[in-house]
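Recall that a protein's primary structure is simply its ordered list of amino acids. Everything else, from secondary elements to tertiary packing, is in principle encoded there. The following example makes that idea concrete.
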Amino acid sequence: MTDRFDAIIIGGGLAGGLAALALAREGFSLALVDSETPAAMREEAFDGRTTALAYAAARVFRRLGLWSALEPDAEPIRDILVTDGRRAAPGRKGFVSPFHLHFDSRELENGEPLGFIVENRRLRCAIYDGLARRENVELMAPARRTATAIGKSSAEVALASGRILTAPLVIAADGRHSPLRAEAGVKVTQWTYPQVGIVATVAHERPHDGVAQELFLPAGPFAILPMTGGRSNLVWTEAKAAAPAYLALPDADFLSAIRARFGDYLGEIELAGPRWSYPLAFHLAQSFIAPRLALIGDAAHAIHPIAGQGYNLGVKDIAALVEVLADARGVGLDIGAMSTLATYQRWRRFDSAMLAFGGDALVKLFSNDIAPIRLARDLGMSVVNQVPPLRRFFMRQAGADLGRLPELMAR
């Protein structure tokens, strides 16, 4: 038997699940297919990472009715403090530049925090609870896609169970290594960084006051992100060659390495969860669309965590795609036609490319200890810090609040 839907979403993670909720809100019928068991994705051990949810992205969760479930576990970012520094080398004193960049949420006219730090598990739980309330979404998990056939007026997806799904459109939310993207012949611009992201959560003696800090070190940025419950999440970018040794340290030595990077302004600290690590890489799909296919989230782009914008790019993909598809259906157009999908691509690919390549430039600018470059970037930060319009521009960039915003993200 063939089951018909308005769209089939492959990948039920943070991007695919949110896309299903947003499309369901517009009355579309959805099949959401994921290989993982939903119960496993709710467990704390599944993913110890957090997400920096920009304030414009948080509006999407509010409009989809998810914020009341998230708010108790979403720590507002009131300030962002960016400092240039370098760790002490053997035989010399450490150095921290007097130049810094301070973003204060009180400067924004909208009165919103700059963003929120939320554990990924909390986001997934809110999304899956929301899906359970939507009658027009069928969650198929665990389920494995075995084939996809693209026809003139629809696409057909075969599952390992024998079910056949058909819809005018398939949405690829199947991650950075997206099999759907590869099968569609979409090429990718990509490279790896000589860095590893180390993630850990610490509990601390003193309050963080909602301040997110980022210290630029020669190996890469070291971010301290405020969480609820007197905790902070650390995103430590380290040279690939050195990272395994840090990950293997006993807890006491690992905490000493942390203190050597950000000092004791939070008082005594202790680990409040396991350590995680992941390789850092860049990729940008050369097209966000193919016949009867749209790419969102990591299937379309993955960027360095230096600016904390990875998931926010995906949220904007989702909000834009939903608006394009709803508008097309409203005037009787085929939602999976290339002419419809081209509107989505025009809206999202240039914006994604600009932010992705801009983030890559920041990585190259700040992940070194060359004196002339260090001086230039320090002076640049100082100029931005002293010019309020420039400061507010970068604050809105951090809030995913620039450019043409989809209705779900607009103020």
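The longest strand covers residues 188-204. The radius of gyration is 22 Å.
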